[in-house]
Structures are given as C-alpha cells and as structure tokens.
Design goal:
The complex is a heterodimer of chains A (about 325) and B (about 270).
Chain A lengths: L6 E10 L2 E11 L4 E6 L5 H8 L7 E6 L8 H7 E4 L11 H11 L4 H14 L15 H13 L5 E5 L7 H16 L4 E5 L3 H7 L2 E6 L2 E6 L1 H8 L3 E6 L5 H10 L3 E6 L5 E6 L5 H10 L6 E5 L3 H14 L3
Helix pairs in contact in A: 3-4, 4-5, 8-11
Chain B lengths: L2 H16 L2 H31 L5 H10 L2 H6 L5 H13 L1 H26 L2 H5 L5 H34 L1 H4 L7 H28 L3 H21 L1 H6 L2 H25 L2 H6 L2
Classes of the chains: A alpha/beta (about 325), B mainly alpha (about 270).
The complex binds adenosine-5'-triphosphate and magnesium ion.
Adenosine-5'-triphosphate binds next to strand 2 and helix 1 of chain A.
Chain lengths: ~325, ~270
C-alpha cells in the first residue's frame, strides 16, 4: 500500500507489575481499514487501545499513530481519534444532550456548530426524543448508544471501538455495523474494533489480529487466516432422517474425521476432515453404507473455527 | 491552556453537583446551622442566658480584664453584654465560618475526583484532547467556585443574622470588622485551597466518593479545624496577623495542590487498579 500507516507499532510492550498485558506488539494499519482486534478476556485489547491513545505509557517499544507519538503528542493525537471505552462512562446525572454538548466543547467543535452536530449524532442513534432526560433513566443499550454518539461527535479519523455492540439489540447492532462500514468506505476513516463477537469481526473487518496473553498470534484477513491456519475442511451432508444413525456410524468409522454431529432438527450431518483429499473417500463410504445423499457441501471455515483452532494450537505450544 | 475545555469541565462538574443530593445536602445544611441558626440563637438568647444561674457576668469581666490593654481599648464604650456579643459573634464564630469553605471544597472535590473514578466517567474525559493540567485546573475550579460562593453567601447571611439578632443589645451595626473582611476575602479562599489539596491527595488513594469524604472528614479536616480554631485568637491581634495566617494557609494549600497535581496524571490513574 502506498499510504503511510495510520497505526504503526514496534515492539510495543506494557507490564503491570508481573503481568505482561501487551507483549512485543508489531502492527501496521492503513487508512480506511477496519481492523478486528480479537482475544480472550484479559488478552490485552483495552491496554493496547490505551497505549495507542497516549493515556498509558508503554514499558518499552514505540508506537506511531496518525504520524504522532502517543506518549509525547497525546493531546494533539486525541483531537483526531475517537474512543468508545468498554464501559459506556456517560455521566448519569446529566442529560443525553448535556453529555454530548460538553464533549463537543472538549473536542473543540466550534461553539456555533455544537447544537447542530449534537442533534445530528442524537438522530443517528435515535436518541433525539430522550435527549432531555437524565442518563440515569436510560437503558443499558441507550447508554451504549450515547457513548457511541460521543465517540464520533468530532468526526475522528481513527475510531477505537472497545466492544461496541455489547448490550445492543439486533436492530441497533446492525445499525452500528452499517455505520462502521460507511465510515470505512470513504477510505479516510480507520476503525480499530475490539470485539468478542467473531461473527461481527468476520462481517466487518478487512483484517483481524488475534491476541493471546498480550502477544499477537495471528494477523490477516479472515480468508488469509483460513488459508494459513485452517488445514482441514468442513463438510455438510444432507440425507434422510431414517439414514442418520447409519450415516453417523459410517462417518465416525473413517479415520481422521472429527466433530461428526447432526444439525439440530435437520437430516443434515456436519463433520471436519483434515484434508480435502478425503472427500471422495467419505462419499464412497456413505454409498457403501447405503446412505442416500441429497447434498454434500464443503463449508468455508468461520472466523470462529479459526479462532478456536488458533487457541488450540497455542495451548499445545510450550510457553 | 484551553479555557474553553476547562469551562466545559467546570460546567459538567457543577451540573453534576447540583443534581446530587449527597453533595448538595451538606452544602446547604452546614452553612445554615453555623451561619444562621447558631448565631441567631445566641444573639436572641444572650439576654436570657445572662439571667441563668451558673452563667455569670463577673467571669467574663474577669476574662476581659486579662486581655492586653491595647485590645481592651478597642472595646471601649461597650457594656458587658455588648462585649459578650462582640466577643462571641465577631471572634468565637470566625472558625465556624471557615468550616464552610473547608467543607464545601472538600465535599465537591471528593465527588469530582474520587466520585468520578467510582462512576467510571473519568475514562471518557481521559480520552479527550485536554492535557492533564487542564483537567486538573477544571476540577480544581469546580471545587473552588462553590466553596467561595457558599462562603460569601454564608458571610452575608451571617452578617444579617448577627446584626439583627443582637440589635436589642447592640443598638448599632457592629459586624463585620476589618479582620472579618480579610477573613472572607483572603483566609477563606486559602482554607478552601487547603481543603481541596488535601482531598485531592486523599482521592488519589481511594476509589469512592464516600471513602474520600469520610477520610477527608474524619482525619484531615479536624486537623485543619484545630489550626483554624486559633483564628479567633489571631483576630484579636488585628488585620496584619490575620493576613499572615491566611498566607500560611495559602502556602499549605499550595504545597498540597502541588502534590495533588502530581497524583493527577492520566497515565498514572489508568495504571492503578
Ligand atoms: N491497571 C492495571 N493494573 C494491573 N493489571 C492490569 C491493569 N490493566 C490491565 N491489567 C491486566 O492486563 C491484562 C490485559 O488487560 P486488558 O484489560 O487489556 O484485557 P482485554 O483484552 O481488554 O480484556 P477484556 O476482553 O476482558 O476486556 C489483564 O491480565 C489485566 O488484568
Ligand atoms: Mg477490554
């Protein structure tokens, strides 16, 4: 890519006493990308967001964000980034409008533009009707929406979202997804998305990084990761309800088939193979067992498959 | 310094203070007791008190005789009852007045420093382009402004109450004197700064409004109150000594705030648990 990276880290590391929260992180993120930042609880996602915004200093290593050094130009940098923190951290005693108007001032939106900009983001998140109510009267999801509205009020070039859709209903979740896509589409906005929701990451992210105990164990597009990390393949076999027991018996008998399970309530069995070469063997085996085959489909691994495979690999690796 | 950002922080904290019963209640009740009810009761009951057995004027005459002649000269022409009023309402109540800036600054600062951590709203502020110093100054002003406003209002109400309640005995406006003006304009802000500085330091060690308020209220403030208790004695010696005491408090407040600022670095705050 020709553009300079929006985020560039070299050996970024942060310790908390004897815990290594972020360990030797090397990242390059380009303008317009949506990067999914995945990892178990405590993997170091939130700590990374803090380091990249200059609100926490690294123990070692360095970072460059929007061409600035977060640890020395933090204030200048934060003018151009927006952060949705993991707890909404909206002011319960203030109204929704007041929450936004105050942050508009803190982000130095021209006084004359504050009112219209606040109205605009309230509208995006459908909070206009409740703008005059105290936030203590909001539901959890409404607080989350307000926090999202606040994170984008100054139209940041780089948006950090720490679990944006946790607690949101499906309708709003979809709106947030649309928003993220629209933001990244123009090529000027970059989104750093920390999430536990793998389907969300798969749907939205150009690339994902997987973090484990502070270390990045994988980085790439979901397709790349699938190619590199997912050696096997998943198959789906449709047969009849009567033939299910025979089919399961025949399939489990084949060496190297795994996770042979019936899809709940359907005459469909799914299974994992280590190699694509085994597919013809599976077919002849089923035919030999007298199992009628209506459909046999190879399935793309989901990010979820990859994620679990990745963590399996790392469990086996000596520390 | 980005004053617009500082103003936004002050606005936010003050709005939050106004809407919190836990914070507003002490801010209303304490001045009410010390600045209206107590002096009013004293002024009105003084004549009656005198008649009571056990409280006898000779004791007070004796006490007054022990005062240095230079001081006594200031009270020339007063009857014993009037002396008693002046002694109580001008001098003995002065430390009670100083409780107001001390308490208000401390309660509001507990809310805006420790309470903010408790409510988890600080994290959002931390991600704004404000500098650590701007955040600190904003929060400092959020505590100083109500402390000074409530002090001033308290002083005006006290002046009214004292003069009205003591009118039957005094027959003239006797309050305030010069030392009180110094007290209000110079010593009270210094007291507020000291209470604020102490509370900021306490707040950096605890995680809730209640904890900060309690530690500040139980350990720190009584020590300060002890020092302030000397103010009545100091004020006998006139304006200059009062100014000096204020100066001492300003220095103490300055030192506390200096260390307070150092506890208020976003990177340090987030590094703590
Ligand atoms: N201020 C702190 N003091 C001590 N340890 C900390 C602190 N902040 C984070 N940690 C530790 O660093 C590690 C990474 O934490 P972090 O919050 O970055 O994880 P995360 O990936 O965001 O997890 P989650 O998905 O639960 O939000 C954890 O082991 C955590 O306990
Ligand atoms: Mg987190």
């Amino acid at each position: 890519m020709i553009n300079a990276p929006v985020i560039l880290t070299e050996g970024l590391t942060r310790h908390f006493d004897d815990i290594i929260a972020v360990d030797d992180l090397n990242l390059e993120i380009y303008p317009g990308e949506v990067l999914g930042f995945l990892g178990h609880n405590g993997a170091g996602k939130t700590t990374t967001v803090r380091l990249l915004n200059g609100v926490l200093t690294p123990t070692s290593g360095k970072a460059q964000v929007l061409g600035l050094d977060p640890s020395t130009d933090g204030a200048e940098l934060r003018r151009r980034t927006g952060v949705l923190t993991e707890t909404p951290s909206v002011d319960e005693r203030l109204t929704g409008y007041e929450n936004l108007a105050i942050f508009a001032a803190l982000f130095n939106i021209p006084p004359a533009a504050v009112e219209s900009r606040v109205a605009e983001v309230l509208e995006i998140f459908q909070l206009t009707d409740r703008a005059g109510d105290r936030v203590s009267e909001y539901s959890k999801g409404m607080k989350q929406k307000l926090a999202l509205a606040r994170a984008i009020i100054h139209q940041p070039e780089l948006l950090f979202l720490d679990e944006p859709t946790s607690g949101l209903d499906p309708v709003i979740t979809r709106q947030v997804h649309t928003l993220i896509r629209e933001l990244s589409r123009d090529g000027n906005h970059t989104v750093f998305l920390c999430t536990h929701n793998l389907a969300e990451a798969q749907r939205l992210c150009d690339r994902v990084a997987v973090l484990e105990n502070g270390r990045m164990v994988a980085l790439g597009s979901p397709a790349e990761l699938a190619r590199d990390l997912w050696k096997g393949m998943r198959l789906e076999v449709e047969t009849t309800t009567e033939a299910i027991p025979a089919a399961i018996k025949a399939l489990t008998a084949i060496p190297d088939t795994r996770e042979v399970v019936q899809e709940q309530g359907h005459p469909v069995i799914s299974l994992s193979l280590n190699l694509r070469d085994q597919v013809p063997g599976v077919v002849s085996c089923l035919v030999a067992a007298g199992v009628p085959i209506f459909r046999l489909t190879p399935k793309e691994p989901t990010l979820e498959d990859i994620y679990f495979a990745l963590h399996e690999n790392h469990k086996e690796m000596p520390a | 310094m980005n004053w617009r950002a500082i103003k936004a922080i002050v606005q936010r904290d003050l709005l939050a203070v106004f809407r919190s019963k836990g914070v507003m209640l002490p801010l209303i009740i304490v001045p009410l007791i010390f600045m209206i009810i107590l002096p009013g009761a004293f002024g009105l009951l003084m004549p009656v008190l005198n008649e009571l057995p056990g409280v006898n004027t000779p004791d007070i005459t004796l006490f007054l005789e022990r005062l240095p002649p230079a001081l006594l000269a200031r009270f020339e022409g007063y009857t014993t009852d009037q002396l008693m009023i002046v002694f109580m309402l001008v001098y003995m109540f002065a430390p009670m007045f100083l409780i107001i800036p001390l308490m208000v600054a401390s309660v509001v600062a507990s809310d805006s420093f420790a309470g903010e951590k408790e409510r988890k709203t600080l994290e959002a502020l931390i991600y704004t382009p404000t500098t650590d110093l701007e955040l600190f100054v904003g929060k400092m002003l959020s505590a100083m402004i109500p402390a000074l406003v409530v002090s001033l209002v308290g002083f005006l109400l006290y002046g009214l109450t004292a003069n009205i309640a003591a009118w039957p005995i005094m027959g003239r406006i006797f309050f305030p004197n010069a030392a009180w003006i110094i007290l209000v304009l110079w010593v009270a802000p210094a007291t507020a700064a000291t209470g604020l500085g102490a509370t900021v330091i306490v707040s950096s060690k605890v995680n809730s409004f209640q904890e900060a308020n309690q530690i500040a209220g139980i350990i720190v403030l009584p020590i300060l109150a002890l020092v302030l208790g000397q103010i009545s004695g100091v004020m006998y010696f006139g304006v200059l000594v009062t100014v000096l005491l204020g100066l001492v408090l300003w220095v103490a407040g300055g030192i506390l705030l200096f260390f307070g600022v150092r506890t208020f670095r976003r990177s340090e705050i987030l590094a703590k648990r």
